[in-house]
Amino acid sequence: MAPAAIIMLIALFYPLVYMVYGSFRDWDPSQRLSETDFVGLANYVKLLSDEAFIESLTVTLTFAFVVVFFEMLIGVGLALLLDRNLRGMSLLRTLFILPMMIAPVVVGLMWRFMYHQTDGIFNRWLTDLGLDRVDWLGQHALTSVIIADIWQWTPFIFILSLAALQSLPRSALEAARIDGATGWQQIIHIKLPLMAPVLIVTMLLRLIDAFKVLEVILVMTEGGPGLSTEILALRIARTAQEFRELGEAAAMSNYLLLLLMVLTLAMFGFTRWQEARAQKLKMLQREEEG
Q1: Any long-range contacts for 257-260 (C-beta under 8 Å, 24+ apart)?
Q2: Residue-wise pLDDT tens digits, 65-108
Q3: Which partner from 14, 196, 254, 288 sits 20 to 30 angstroms from 2, CA to CA?
Q4: CB–CB of 213/233 below 8 Å?
Q5: Burial track 164-179 (b if 16+ CB lie within 10 A, e otherwise)
Q6: Chain centroid to CA 280: how far?
Q7: What is the spatial distance between Cα 177 and Cα 189, in angstroms, rounded to a whole number?
Q8: How far is residue 7's CA from residue 96's CA, in Å, rounded to a whole number?
Q9: Contact, 63 vs 221, CB < 8 A?
Q10: Does position 113 have pLDDT exceeding 90, yes or no?
């Protein structure tokens, strides 16, 4: 195991330790880390009273949970709808996954042009209908960014959900049909419970990625207007590059890392609880049958 352990230490743990160590220093880009002054928890304490950081954290939480909720809802719904043998279904499934193949920068530019105040396609439609134009990237900036992210990443949920559906034991579904279960009853009592482990991991992956999204928002709004779309990843980048406060940026990164670790542990704990509950139910069924 030594070669793998050495690679992990160099590629994973060294940068992580370097970032954590830097968060306890008064550090700017003109200094080597060894030349900086130790300030203890000063960077972390300062961030807790920084209104811009609190606002960015609030925007990040709102953005992440809203996009993941709707992506799970739409993605799982589409998977349940398209889990059948129909003509042209392979082509339709391929079309559904195209958005996630596009580079994030291109997605940001595309939606920015679509949201344009005068030439954007959405405002043209509104004008044709005799309605007033909407300032999509002004008054409704966060909503507009959320819509763009849902459009791009719902296919990710769809693909994994469809794969989970197609791997379900057909014997359980067939037994439910024989017992007279309706389509909705099969979805609620058989399909979704059996898909739960895959759905939880899928939701966790998307949630982690949503907390770190940067390119689409940077291209569409640059975090504006004001701080309305400045997520934490963008705030970290600005703190390091524009404000030249590497110690504070590292502390922000550690706050984000801690938040993601808590979410990850919570979801894995829920998964373990579900597995233990399923095993207990199986044991009870065997005892009743015996």
Answers
A1: 259/211, 260/208, 260/211
A2: 999 999 999 999 999 888 877 777 778 777 888 888 899 999 99
A3: 254
A4: yes
A5: bbeeeeeeeeeebeee
A6: 32
A7: 12
A8: 38
A9: no
A10: yes
